[in-house]
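User: Structure tokens for this complex, please. No commentary.
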Amino acid sequence: MAGAGLEARATAGRETGSTGRERTGATQSLPLQWNEPIQSHLNRGFILFLLFLESTSTMAEPAIPTPPARVLSGMRPTGKLHLGNYMGALANWVRLQDQYECYFFIADWHALTTDYADPSQIAPNSIEVMLDYLAAGLDSEKSVLFLQSKVLEHAELALLLGMSTPLGWLERVPSYKEMQENLTGKDLTTYGFLGYPVLMASDILLYQADFVPVGQDQQAHVELTREVARRFNQFYRPPVRSEADMLPALEGKVVLPEPKVLLTPSPKLPGTDGRKMSKSYGNTILMSDPEPVVRQKLKTMVTDPARIRRTDPGDPDKCPVGDLHKVFSTPETMAKVYEGCRSAGIGCIECKGWAADSLMKVLQPIQDRRAQFTEPRVIEILEDGSRRARARAEQTMIEVRAAMQMTLATEKERVSK
Ligand code: SF4
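Assistant:
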């Protein structure tokens, strides 16, 4: 990925979604040059020019602004977030919040699908994850930041979507079998675990999201959500009012628009053992790890296996530390690494020290921001965000209930006013 800019692309023409917002094709990619220093992306601002026109009697009627497309994503609170979470998701989310109407949540009910036997860490982990969201630069003034379990409509929509989702779709989800095999200490033969894709679909469809930001390997999850929405819309497309007593605004409307994938850059980020950085491998560098811990973890990181002695030349392209450099180091440092490693002019300890320097340039501002938030403030942000999310979710549920003809006459009168 280094050096390759991803151009924004649309695989189909522009269209107007049922939410009235202009939407682009089924897949979009975000532009990002990963060989630029990461910090420059984080600091990249969007300059807004406001043009003030003199008011005259001949002034054209101002155009009605198009609302920004809506984006939704979330993470399970399984513990403090690591650099892989940051580079694969959070850094992208921070940029998206300047361009889209964003909803980012903590999926605490999803954590229950695997941790139902001991839920004691889900609430404290939710606070830690929200701290990491805020530390990364998510801003509660720009994005709606909320806790899934505080918006009960997620459960209601999951139940309703579960009525029409075929069992075979869920059994065929690749991660269903994979996780059952990998998490051997847990009994995952449960209704909740099988149904997690339905809950995930409800998370997305509840906000009538236009886009879901994901990496290449997660596109299948969004595709299942699109299928769930398609099936719902086939069954429950509201007929015109003369045929059924629907809410006027719903006549013929697609209630659950199919979300689209927003491909986001997800650079290869190895853990300390050389495998993909993952909590389940125990090879992570946390966003909140203090500098001495980062340096210690890097000291133990595996290197190019061909470089056994200090005098052996190595190859940064075959070394996990080299991969870290490619993501976090400047071109000048990279040049020193390539030259020094291939000529055996530097030792791995020195090279890892440079990698730690580069990592800390990204992590230090994140950790400084984290230190500004107290737990009561985090809870306040979550409560406020959840209230805003509930208000948006209820709008969708009014339409869902009406489309499914689950609305009483008295409610119709109330929501029509
Ligand atoms: S010098 Fe750096 S890139 Fe080369 S093998 Fe050692 S740690 Fe890896």
